[in-house]
Queue: 3 jobs
Job 1
Amino acid sequence: QVQLVESGGGLVQAGGSLRLSCAASGRTFMGWFRQAPGREREFVVAISKSGGYTSYADSVKGRFTISRDNAKNTVYLQMNSLKPEDTAVYYCAARNGEPGPALVASMRAYDYWGQGTQVTVSS
């Protein structure tokens, strides 16, 4: 059983930055998803156990950066140039094995989920 604890959400103006953290109880393949009000949860980014592989949703490429500190079993999501449409609850997710590329963006590929952290971007 892997436990995930997110932190770092908050309120920021458009164009600003936030950094989210997800502390895990073990080293796993990690992803971030987000869910805006009235919308389905969507994939944001994922990172392999080693950090050597990353995958980003087109909507955040060039603005968001995922990284990890394996000594701390923590994954970070640096979000820059934030837009109002980035407003959502952000969820950290994990799985023990490495998924194939076709599964990286699928919620079904992840076994463990955090409680979510709210990110609000004002215009």
Job 2
Amino acid sequence: QVQLVESGGGSVQAGGSLRLSCVASGYTYSSNCMGWFRQASGEEREGVAAIYTEGGTTFYADSVKGRFTISQDNAKNTLYLQMISLKPEDTAMYYCASLDCPKRGRWPREYYYWGQGTQVTVSS
């Protein structure tokens, strides 16, 4: 059974940093990317970062470019999202997910697997 478990969320002030982690178990790659999406209260899901599982190519939403960095440690089956210069508009539940890599800047609307999420709250 596939399980993705996120951690590392919390409450920070604007300009602060957080690092999210996602540990995968029982998992065999069924997609070409692993990534993170977020969902703010009352809003649609938004893909924010993804990494090609077999090559390391990364993808970022325009809203987080230059501030978020996605990485993976295959030996630990762990995906990371380093977030710096956080803004109040980054406040959301963040989910680790298995997904198709974005194409021409278009992010998928569906995901193969995702975790339970970790809350990130940024205050001004």
Job 3
Amino acid sequence: QVQLVESGGDSVQSGGSLRLSCAASGPMSLRFSMAWFRQAPGKKREGVAVMSRDGRHFYADSVKGRFTISQDNAENTLYLQMASLKPEDTAMYYCAADQRACGTACFNPALLASWGRGTQVTVSS
């Protein structure tokens, strides 16, 4: 498994932007599918964005056009650029990874083996 540490969460006003980072360490010579999830209090964990092993991007409908997932392979870091933030984006955001090759299937949190501890994003109106 790979170890993941998220950072970049903050409190912002509605309409603002944030960039989350996920630093990965471990057997990075292997290829991974990577994803961002979020979980608000009292709600299920939901997939936000997925980057498949072949570099394709997939997004939840709720964030399409506002969020962008990217990866810096040299730094072993996954990013989530978030723009036009809304109060409903408020949640704990988690980074996840798995060696399986998956696209939209990786929106199912049960399929990903490695998880970070999360970083809090709060958007006020």
